[in-house]
Amino acid sequence: MRIGELSRRTGVPVPTIKYYVREGLLPPGELSSPNQARYDETHERRLRLIRALLDVGGLKVAAIAEVLQAVDDPARPVHKVLGAAADRLGPQHDTDDEELSEALVTVRELIERRGWRVHADNPAAADLAHALAALDRLGHGTFTELLDTYAEAAEQVARADLDYVDRRVAVEDLVENVVIGTVLGEAVLSALRRLAHVDRSARRFGKREGNASADA
């Protein structure tokens, strides 16, 4: 296909496609004449991945280039490629702060207790430690008592996520699913949690107050 058709099929403007080619994010098309290049389904798939990393994941061009480098490395295991994408989706923290030391120990103990095959320096571990440290500062340090319950629920969600991701074959499709699933999947999970809170609250406290309506 010509670049115009590629643009129509992906919704990416032609100047943007050319920019991605110049930045090395998208392979150049195969020259069919001095001024014409042809593109195929691999370019369409790569464009879809770039847009997912950019629009959904919020990654900068440099971070996208790092993820794509991992995708194109045939020696890198698939779970390492998926990790390279997932690691860049979370907030960046400085984990050297002293107030985080206790929270980091708690997180490492959780990882060991659950038998998770996760390195203690994983960015998500730092995110969790920051959240726990914030809870402690707000006087809710006992929230750590719920960690294993949350971890068990997270394991079920992770299994469902990977069952969905595993339907796709191409590594680029897998990475795209991870990006979309991580960002939008968390939004879905958060909304479901809030709905469940309303239901549990109505069932637990509604009866005490004599409310007939579950929506009270």
Automatic annotation (TrEMBL):
Coiled coil stretches, renumbered: none
InterPro entries cross-referenced by the UniProt entry: DNA-bd_dom_put_sf, MerR-type_HTH_dom, MerR_fam
Alphabetically ordered keywords of this record: DNA-binding
Pfam families given in the database record: MerR_1
Domain HTH merR-type span(s) in chain numbering: 1-70
Cross-referenced Gene3D superfamilies: 1.10.1660.10
The protein's name in its UniProt record: MerR family transcriptional regulator
